[in-house]
């Protein structure tokens, strides 16, 4: 397994949509790719972020991924955490594999809160953790989530809708309240996604809520009657998953300020500040009015986006890794994918980011595909300027990497192991008479892989 003069070994860290589609682009260009992934299974957002009942959608994406991962120049290493607190650091990956460049597509794995009192209390959760839980991603699949009967979700995007979907149909809580700083005209979810819970919308409560904020939305030219029609578009559509007693409610123009805790240290209310809408620079922002009130609840879930993992080993600014602020003289636009050290004031040579690692919580699978491929293009422009691929045999570098992981006690998996796991899950689904089945722990997945390997 040698590399031609024009071929390079490239490392991609993170096997979600951005990383896998980028890998496809890189092998099309004739390069070898070592794809390192935290989880046993590849797929990232597509595997563990899309709502679990959307099996056909997930399977359609998996088919595309399988074609890329099965390419002979793709070398998959799953169940390997890269970072300062992982089994291997970014510097060690570089030293062992000696790649021509590295593309980081690990997503936004940090937890983003709002910095308000009470947000670290029991009964307060981040949406991403709960999404991972109900999609059976270890270790979140094993983590207890003590969901009460009245749940406030902070945020009004598609993630809020997915969380509400779970609470309405899987948990069947009494009440879900979506809390938004801005108004109904600024909702970020798509109406089609909302269809899953539309039948549970408390329309009488919605009318009262729109009357409460009528003067504030009309002040920016929005009409309450039109907003009501948009919000209730699908209320008469029969839910695909059957009836649920849960009442779904909105609270608009409410900025969360504190999670009020009871004597047991758990939430009893979400304290909010009334806001008004202000047009500013072609956008609409929420401005606090200085009046406060409480929304009773016993569970609070933050669906306010994500931020990158600060322990990975790259410079961070805000919610994202820092990219080059200066235009690339060779290929304008590539700078948005080049990792930049603001302390040294220079680009980190051969390091690139794409997907949510570049722009946290921006879009879903389609956007990740687009950004991953654009990041791959930026990386290709960089390696095309290098004299040649490294002279050392790729097989030697791969075996050195495997030996290092084994010495660290890392039970890594390669793509043939993933194929064995998928077949084991398919057979288990068939045995149970269900459409799909997924092992919920790493231990179960590894046992299934070992059993399949012993047989085959």
Report on the structure:
The chain is α/β, with parallel strands linked by helices and 456 residues long. The protein has two domains: 9-109 and 307-413, 3-Layer(aba) Sandwich (Rossmann fold), CATH 3.40.50; 124-302, FAD/NAD(P)-binding domain (3-Layer(bba) Sandwich). It contains 14 helices and 16 strands. It has helices at residues 17-28, 45-48, 55-69, 90-97, 127-134, 158-171, 191-194, 203-212, 214-218, 224-231, 365-384, 394-407, 415-432, 442-455, and strands spanning 9-13, 32-36, 74-77, 101-104, 124-126, 150-154, 175-179, 247-251, 254-261, 267-280, 283-296, 299-302, 316-317, 320-321, 338-341, 346-353. The strands form four sheets. A six-stranded mixed β-sheet has the order 3-2-1-4-16-15, covered by helices on one side. Strands 5-12-6-7-8 form a five-stranded parallel β-sheet. The chain has a three-stranded antiparallel β-sheet with strand order 9-10-11, with no helix packed on it. A hairpin with a 2-residue loop joins β10 and β11. The longest helix has 20 residues, at 365-384. The radius of gyration is 24 Å and the shape is globular. The mean pLDDT is 94.
